[in-house]
Design goal:
Elements (H helix, E strand, L loop, with lengths): L1 H62 L8 E2 L5 E7 L5 E8 L5 E4 L3 E6 L2 E4 L1 E2 L6 E4 L4 E7 L10 E9 L7 E9 L10 E2 L7
Parallel strand pairs: 1-4, 7-12
Antiparallel strand pairs: 2-3, 3-9, 4-8, 5-6, 5-10, 9-12, 10-11
């Protein structure tokens, strides 16, 4: 009997502790579960906002669209390319037209590579500073390519393609050109490119 009473007492004590522990857990868990859940919900909301922001930023970069009328970087796919003669001999104007539906920006030097049967030459950057250029849909901006005219009397080097890579882009566009420069002695081609947004 004494063993049974002790066993019953032990069970009662254990049950009491278990109830107390459960109540402690419940109150603790309701306290923690409510606030974390609010926190979780807040963090989910902020996560959603962050993700929406990231998505907007992504759309901005890809399509030049940003909520609130801002603009992202112009992509090669939303630009139309053309060339025209410069004001001086040995200059070529490259026009970049925004063919997209939203404004976009260009800032910096483009990549400019001349190609032809005589090889490929990459233009060096000029010393001009690069402005921040915003291009509205249907509008255009430009940059100038400078090259030494071939007045040497020799055949020189002829280039028939100009590969243009807009600033902050990895995709290029190839334009047909006809540029003839004197053959250099290895001291540099003398071909330079100005930043986008400069040139007339």
């Amino acid at each position: 009997m004494r063993v049974q009473k002790l066993s019953l007492l032990a069970i009662a004590v254990a049950a009491g502790l278990s109830v107390t522990a459960c109540q402690g857990d419940d109150s603790g868990s309701s306290g923690t579960s409510d606030s974390p859940s609010a926190g979780d919900s807040a963090s989910q909301n902020s996560g959603t906002q962050g993700s929406a922001g990231a998505s907007t930023g992504h759309e901005a970069v890809n399509g030049g669209q940003v909520a609130g009328g801002g603009s992202g970087a112009c992509q090669t796919s939303q630009l139309g390319f053309s060339t025209s003669g410069g004001m001086a001999e040995g200059t070529l104007i490259v026009n970049l037209k925004n063919t997209g539906s939203a404004a976009c920006t260009l800032h910096g030097f483009p990549g400019a590579d001349l190609k032809g049967k005589d090889g490929t030459v990459s233009a060096d950057r000029s010393k001009l500073s690069a402005p921040q250029v915003s291009v509205q849909p249907g509008e255009e901006t430009r940059f100038t390519l400078h090259y030494p005219p071939n007045d040497s009397g020799g055949t020189g080097a002829t280039f028939t393609s100009l590969v243009v890579t807009p600033p902050d882009e990895t995709h290029s566009f190839t334009l047909p050109v006809s540029i003839n420069v004197p053959v250099t002695d290895g001291s540099g081609s003398g071909i330079t490119v100005d930043p986008v947004g400069t040139g007339k």
